[in-house]
Each structure stands twice: as structure tokens, then as C-alpha cells.
Design brief:
Strand content: 15-25%
Shape: globular
Distance between the termini: 37 Å
Number of domains: 1
Largest sheet: 2 strands, parallel
Number of helices: 2
Number of strands: 2
CATH topology: Macrophage Migration Inhibitory Factor
Helix content: 25-40%
Strand order of the largest sheet: 1-2
Structural class: alpha+beta
Order of helices and strands: EHEH
Length: about 60
């Protein structure tokens, strides 16, 4: 089953507790839709390039 939303997060995967809290908050916001999350530091280079060239940035924190 494909996800309704695919979200890529810049950086490495957080610990399991933070992942679970993030998914719980996201589920409350999105409701009935299915969401897949990938962490860009943990995917293959080719897949990362596809995400960066075809994806849409929905939030960017500038430091």
C-alpha cells in the first residue's frame, strides 16, 4: 500500500522515542492519511538525489 504523503527529513534518524513522538503528532495533524518518513542521511545516494530533485520543501529552518 502506497503512502498518501511521503516526507523526507534532513539529517540522521533520531532515537526511537523521538521518532514515535514525531509520528504521533504527525498522525494527529494528518488524520486518516498514511504517511511515510525517510531520513536523508539514512538513504542511498541515488534515492536521496531523486528526493532532492523531485520533492517539494514544506519547511526549511535557516540557521
Amino acid at each position: 500500500m502506497a503512502a498518501d504523503f511521503d516526507i523526507a527529513v534532513s539529517g540522521s534518524k533520531p532515537d526511537i522515542t523521538r521518532q514515535r513522538k514525531f509520528l504521533e503528532k504527525l498522525d494527529k495533524l494528518i488524520g486518516l492519511y498514511k504517511t511515510d518518513i525517510v531520513y536523508l542521511d539514512d538513504v542511498e545516494v541515488g534515492f536521496k538525489e531523486i528526493i532532492l530533485t523531485s520533492g517539494t520543501v514544506i519547511y526549511e529552518k535557516r540557521i
